[in-house]
Every structure is written in C-alpha cells, then in structure tokens.
Amino acid sequence: MSVHAYPVRTIRADYVRAGIGVVCCLAPLAVGSVVWPVAAVFVSLAALFAVFGVRAVRRQATRVRVTATGVSADGWRPVQIAWDELSAMSLAYYSTRREKAKGWMQLRLKARAGTVRVESTIEGFEAVVGTAAQAASANGVVLDRATRSNLRALGIALDEERP
Fold this sequence. Notes:
Blueprint (H helix, E strand, L loop, with lengths): L1 E4 L2 H24 L4 H26 L1 E4 L3 E4 L5 E4 L5 E8 L7 E9 L2 E6 L5 H15 L5 H9 L10
Antiparallel strand pairs: 1-2, 2-3, 3-4, 5-6, 6-7
Helix pairs in contact: 1-2
C-alpha cells in the first residue's frame, strides 16, 4: 500500500494566493463608499478567491491510498474504488502557458462507487497513474486519445504499445 498527499509547499502557495485575492477585493470596500454594482463585483471576486482557498484546505485534508485491490481518497467526501470495478479513466493536461511549457495534469478515475480525482501536484503522482493505467487495461477500459498521449508523456506504456 502507498499513501499519497499534497505537499505543504504547494498548498501554502495556494493559501497565499487566496488570501491576497480576498484582501485585495475587499480592501476597496473597507476604505470608502463604493457604488453597489462595483461592490457586487468586488464581493463576487472575493467569494471566488475564498472558494479557491476552501479548495486548498480540501486538498490538504486529502490522502490517496493505492493498494493491490483499489484506490481510495479520504477527506471531506471519501471515495473508494476497487480496481476491478474501474469503468473510466482520463488523464488531462492543463497548460498555464500558450507554449504548453508549464501546467498540471489531473487523473480522473470513475466507478459505480464514485469518482477519484488526483492532481499532478500530489507526491507520487506517476505511481498512482501507472497503477491506474494497469487496472484500466486489465478491465478493458477504452482510453481517449488525449489520455493515451498524456500517459506516453509520463513514460507509461499501455499493454497494446509494449513490444
């Protein structure tokens, strides 16, 4: 069994971003009188940053456990998926730059029991993806072209691609 968590340094940066966003959006309201349409925009933006902060708290509380029989994610909404019940898998890449030099990946595993999502900032992401890819292959799960391409980018060969 392996246990994977999101590193504190990654989550700390998200907390800082969320805090700065909330403060910057609410500061104009505290300084003086602002007409209600502008105040509504600032409050809405502050709420978005607050949601981002709550999402960071949620990631910090999440532990992903990978065993020979399945994968589970605890936290606010625990989900446990047995490998033999895995019905869908996708590995998406989200770029933060036009030239795709920087970005992150998200693994999505789906079964009747629920969905487990794991971001590439988690420790041991490649090991989780490799185990999930083996289970998907064993279950005959059809992977889309983007998922297959992203698996190759991580150096994970699918059964049909092995010599």
